[in-house]
Amino acid sequence: MQNDESSQPNFENAKSEVQRKTLDQRAQMDDLMRLRHSCAHIMATAVLRLWPDALLDIGPPTEEGFYYDFDLSHRFSPDDFAKIEETMRQVVKENQVFEKSIKTRDEARAFFEAKGQKFKLERLGDIPEGEAISFYQNGEFVDLCAGPHVMRTGNVKPGGFKLLKVASAYFRGNEKNPQLQRLYGTAFKNKEELENWVKLQEEAKRRDHRKIGAEMGLFAFDAEYVGPGLALWLPKGAVLVEELEKLAKETEFQAGYVRVKTPHLAKEKMYKTSGHLPYYAESMFPAMELPLEPEQKTKAERDLAVAQAKYDKLEKQVKATDEFKAEAEKPVRIQFDSQNQTATIERNLEFPISEQLAADLIESEELLAKAENRLKGDRYYLKAMNCPHHHRIFAAEPRSYRDLPLRLAEYGTCYRYEQSGELFGLMRVRALNMNDAHIYCTADQFAAEFNAVNEMYLKHFKVFGLDRYQMRFSTHDPARLGDKFVNEPELWKQTEDMVRRVLIESGINYVEVPNEAAFYGPKIDVQVWSTIGREFTIATNQVDFAVPARFGLTYRDRDNTDKTPLCIHRAPLGTHERFIGFLIEHYAGNFPLWLAPEQVRVLTIGDDQPIVDYAKSIVQELRSQFVRIEADLSTNPIKAKIAEAEKAKVHTMLVIGGRDLEAGNISVRLHSKGPQGAKAKAEVVADILAAIKERRA
RNA sequence: GCCAGCUUAGCUCAGCGGUAGAGCAACGGUUUUGUAAACCGUGGGUCGUCGGUUCAAUCCCGACAGCUGGCUCCA
After folding, report:
1. Of A41, A144, A150, A696, whose CB neighbour count within 10 A is largest?
2. What's the mean pLDDT when you consider all of chain A?
3. A21: which nucleotide lies closest, measuring CA to C1'?
């Protein structure tokens, strides 16, 4: 497909308009970004030396390194990396100067047309009129580029860069455009910094929740029998889920939430009413159609027959009327009766009221369609969110302003049909537990409720030692009202102003992201950073001013009129799947005592009966206090038992030998912290119970 | 969904056009121990699935499935 000039490519624009970097912003690019940007050019230089017919797209620096997109019939594979890196080192060695030049638009166009660089031509078109069109050249390689760059290719060190992976990327990220091959690499000031980065990557890999999850027996996927993206929580992982839910339930109870329970599916009408079907259909599992019971079917068939008969009759009448009209429009016939000296005008002047007939026909048609539909049976959808069910709970009883705010909480399982390529361990799944609640309130109550929700986030984050976080405030795009966003310009403005005010007044660290809101209202996503600095979007908090009205939800206000409540959707722990995935990486599997799947293990030195009895009594005592405790009473050497317990990441090990038995002591050892010495049994037990109760870090 | 890579015992991985191997785990013994691994033995695999090439396929080719990485941080 490359060098195919005959058909003028007509590329789609990007999915959403990303703001171009201004030249000022570019000039501020730091040294590392410049270096990486230049390294991207060096890589492109090398690729063109090896594959001269490659078509170029763009090669920007990124937070992790850089990439360059190519169109090329040769498929890059990691086997090519050594060759490309070798050529890159050659370019570095040549120490070429990065030279900037300015071309006119016509010159630039002619330049790329001569080379058949169709993607570059498209990029050229993106440059606004009046902005300088700059080129950078190093050696034989010339690229449309706003810079900035380092001075010479030699500024990049031969051991300071590395190719990382090859991936595909749509031109401008739009799936309607051709796919390009993207080569990823990274570069650092020198070899040492690169090596440090590589080490950090390895640490991240060691902490990967999928790896630790398998090692510790937390969860499993069974694509063959259960399905991709559907996690099975093993006993040890289920502990994490339960502890999280316990934490959330306690916090919510104290904050005045009430708990509800709803089914995992609902009729089509639910999601038609909520508006999820038009806006969200692709993310939902396809509908289930329920066949009718035999009696229902017979009745439905009979109803259908009746409706059909009625319809047929009406239709016939309409036809007859049409025929009559045609007849009527014929010339009038006049008959003379010469005997009686009279004339009869043969003509029916009574036209049926055709408007009435037409209306009847339409009504009958609708009835027929309904009857046909009934015969099909009901359509059910697995719920992709809990809110519609909660709205129906709101609607289940008459509500007064005295009932508000009403905070309905449920850890309902939702099902989302994520694209197969989007699935990623626990982080992106198809069955998920939302730490969900919906707060119905009046506009007056909104600020206080919204604040309380934010405070709950912070409370939770403190428990997990997350001090780095940021809230992303997503707003709507006025240009996409009625398409991506419900068409309520006034309400959008009001609620967005309201949210913005709360954020500013409470001094929360936030950024505003245009065009990313939910379809029913503005949204806040909470990003957190794990101990190794990886970013996760954990919690979400959305304002909904649209859907309660669609469900006709009202409360009786003080002035005896019915009003529609506002609704806040919130999930401070997001989905339990993702949150646990995050925690696994955050703690590297070394959970604090209150979360640890196996909190305590008693290890006996030898298996003499008195020692075994002592160990069993400790197990019994702690187990009766709901501590997750096991015992290793085997005859293995104590070193081996410890090694096993350490490997299993058991939080607290209680080593019991003859000495301890005699003194009524327990020798405590903490996972990855080593022996803590022997203490009186009562003291050890009390400390364990306190640490769990306090959710000590 | 699309592109690329991967799929060998429960796990981590070797291997080769001539019907498979190690370590750990499991199981059975022996061992009686003080803070990260005592010793001996046993079992375990349609080499992801389905087709094709071949005298012969785990290996070569194709399709499918699953997993992994990526799919604008815009010249």
Report:
1. A41
2. 85
3. B74
Q: From residue A245, how far is each of A450, A579, A660, A683 by CA, in Å?
A: 21, 11, 37, 29
What is the structure's pLDDT at A3? 33
pLDDT tens, residue by residue, A528-575: 887 777 778 888 888 888 889 999 999 999 999 999 999 999 988 888
Distance, CA of A545 to CA of A488 (rounded, Å): 9
pLDDT score recorded for residue A393 = 96
- Which nucleotide in the DNA or RNA is closest to residue A605, CA to C1'? B33
The helix/strand/coil state of A21 is coil
Determine which helix (DSSP H) or strand (DSSP E) holds A470, and give its type and residue range.
strand A469-474
Q: Model ipTM?
A: 0.88
User: Residue range A208-236: average pLDDT?
Assistant: 88
Q: Are A236 and A215 in contact (CB under 8 A)?
A: no
Distance CA A218, CA A292 (A): 42
- What does the alpha-carbon distance between residue A198 and residue A488 come to, in Å, rounded to a whole number? 50
Residue nearest to nucleotide B32 (CA to C1'): A606
A261 in Cβ contact with A392 (< 8 Å): no
Q: Is residue A9 over pLDDT 60?
A: no
Note whether A544 and A520 are within 8 A (CB): yes
Q: Which single residue has its CA nearest the C1' atom of nucleotide B37?
A: A640
